[in-house]
Amino acid sequence: MKVTFPYMGTSQIVFKALMDELGHKAVVKPPGKRTLTLGTKYAPEFACIPFKILLGTYIESLEEGAEMIITSGGHGPCRAGHYGQLHEKILRDLGYDFEMVVFESLADGFSDFITNIRRVAGPDLSWWQILKLIRKGWTRLKALDEIERLSHKVRPRELDQGAATEAFDKAKEIIRTAATVAEIKEAKEEGIRLLQNVEQEEDYEPLKIGLVGEIYVVLEPSANLEIEETLGEMGVEVDSSIYLTDWTKEHTFFMPAEETVEEAAKPYLDQLVGGHGQESIGNTVLYAKNGFDGVIQLAPFTCIPEIVAKSILPQVSKDYNIPFLTLFLDEKTGKAGTVTRLEAFVDLLARKRDRNRRELP
Q1: What is this structure's pTM?
Q2: CB of 313 within 8 A of CB of 297?
């Protein structure tokens, strides 16, 4: 069976490998200009950019013969929890014939989650075999996330611009082709060596910017205009507050274990507002406490949770003396204008850091 799924960052490498191992043929469509054009054409006018990109990739995949779409639901007050049902209705109205599998949160129904795993895996594999494949996929995903984190540290220090990106691309390919858990772990180590071998300016102290916001626009370069690569080539070390392997955890790799994102956000926002609104606040606090120079909030245009977060961030910025920049993204957002805003923000942070150093006794 031909299967497709949301294209989001490096996760598509993992899901394609998993579908292949389950005996399916994965239809993987990287988002492009036509993708967004199709999604914008058929989506409701005020749908957010993740909705439109996903709709466009599904249409392109169905055009190539995809028979099943596998996606996720959501938990809490956010429209993303209804994307699967809305996408299915739009696609069926367009005349496409396919099977839709929506994995809802485990908290919303364990039995339905298990039933969907069996629908995707088919009747022939044992649960032990399925669990082994899931373990392998998880190992691959963790390896990709670790390599990506390292690339964000190397890129601002590289002597030859583009070398870190080239090494990262090679590392992704090595991890993609690894066939076993042991090979994936070896591939990760090889990827680390590739990035560490990039010639770097060892004494350079880059500005450090944390990225917060809605998960899709944070993780998918086509949605955020390759912001991590752009900032890295400006000499900025970027840290993403969200990785697919740990976005549900209470802290990211650099954060102190004694304070969770929810606890950090509580003085400003003490309840779930849907999406990653509360996390955007909490992660900004934690970035400030960990000495970051600034924060960039990435938000789809019309995203209510991030609009709530944006209204609170000025107070967080004032209390912790950490500048922030909000970028609302939609199909009309241009890269040239975005780069100009990023350059101005980076210049502001550099001047602030220099001023603070001059004021030190």
Answers
A1: 0.91
A2: yes
